[in-house]
């Protein structure tokens, strides 16, 4: 029984997928084993209707589908149609999460509790997951690369996909006034649909709290790759009426580590080396949240704050 490896992905993620196809070639798969729209020798032929072709492929062939999941994937109607078609066919599949995308972000017919592989690290857990994937390839495609060749090809691919950049989803940001359950002194009034910008109003006259904060949750991420590669915390920010000092805090293993900046009426771009917060690797294994902390002593009246494009690069 012959199989085809069907790679469902967004065209915007073709760099990673092309590297994956090269990885597959190195361990013994050949062109006829793979269907991938972004690689010339495996793409759907010109003139074919993509939906008709995929429908026929999924109906007539024994396929093993790999979903390369990302924000780009879920923004693509073509990708979602492919996912739905594979699901209806009840074909075997594997989810590979691209750097910057996490299991909590998985939607659609892919089950969150179905084990997949997350790219972005080259640790023992990820290597072990790919070793399990090799067993599937052995079974369906009959390839048996020697151990050294397999490990070299696997690690080369994983190192190409190390997560060195990340954008934070601002849609889940929250505003707080410390020891004030009403939080009237700090209110997020607008979250942009693109999830990259928030606008908040801060007024210490509406609270007895000495501190107000805007918190962006990181969902307990491992940032050791970022600190190892000398990455920076980057964003743009603005505050109305004058200059204000505030603290940027990152929660590392349950401990808040801060860095002071100032905002003014110009939309400023910030680029803060992560090592300025903490340079020891072990602290970056568990990052749960980032905070923009405002102090009563630095405020007067009502002020508007804009924070946008929060990212690691």
TrEMBL record:
SMART domains: TIR (SM00255). InterPro entries: TIR_dom (IPR000157), Toll_tir_struct_dom_sf (IPR035897). This is TIR domain-containing protein. Gene3D superfamilies: Toll/interleukin-1 receptor homology (TIR) domain. Residues 1-141 form the TIR domain. It comes from Ruminococcus callidus ATCC 27760. SUPFAM superfamilies: Toll/Interleukin receptor TIR domain. One of its GO terms (biological process) is signal transduction.
């Amino acid at each position: 029984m012959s199989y085809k490896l069907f790679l469902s992905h967004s065209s915007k993620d073709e760099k990673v997928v092309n590297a994956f196809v090269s990885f597959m070639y190195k361990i013994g798969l050949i062109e006829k084993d793979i269907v991938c729209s972004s690689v010339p020798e495996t793409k759907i032929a010109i003139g074919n209707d993509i939906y008709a072709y995929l429908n026929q492929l999924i109906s007539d062939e024994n396929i093993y589908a790999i979903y390369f999941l990302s924000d780009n994937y879920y923004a693509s109607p073509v990708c979602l149609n492919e996912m739905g078609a594979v699901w209806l066919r009840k074909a075997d599949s594997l989810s590979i999460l691209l750097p910057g995308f996490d299991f909590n972000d998985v939607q659609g017919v892919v089950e969150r509790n179905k084990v997949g592989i997350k790219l972005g690290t080259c640790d023992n857990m990820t290597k072990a997951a790919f070793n399990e994937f090799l067993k599937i390839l052995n079974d369906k495609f009959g390839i048996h690369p020697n151990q050294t060749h397999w490990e070299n090809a696997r690690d080369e691919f994983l190192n190409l996909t190390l997560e060195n950049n990340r954008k934070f989803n601002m849609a889940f940001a929250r505003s707080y006034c410390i020891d004030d359950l009403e939080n009237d002194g700090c209110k997020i009034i607008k979250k942009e649909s693109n999830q990259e910008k928030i606008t908040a109003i801060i007024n210490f006259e509406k609270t007895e709290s000495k501190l107000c904060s805007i918190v962006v949750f990181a969902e307990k991420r491992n940032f050791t790759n970022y600190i190892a590669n000398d990455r920076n915390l980057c964003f743009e920010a603005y505050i109305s009426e004058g200059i204000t000092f505030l603290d940027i805090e990152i929660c590392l293993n349950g401990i808040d580590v801060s860095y002071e900046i100032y905002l003014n009426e110009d939309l400023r771009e910030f680029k803060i080396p992560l090592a300025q917060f903490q340079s020891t690797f072990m602290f970056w294994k568990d990052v749960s949240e980032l905070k923009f902390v405002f102090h009563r002593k630095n405020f007067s009246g009502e002020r508007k704050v804009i924070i946008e494009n929060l990212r690691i690069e």
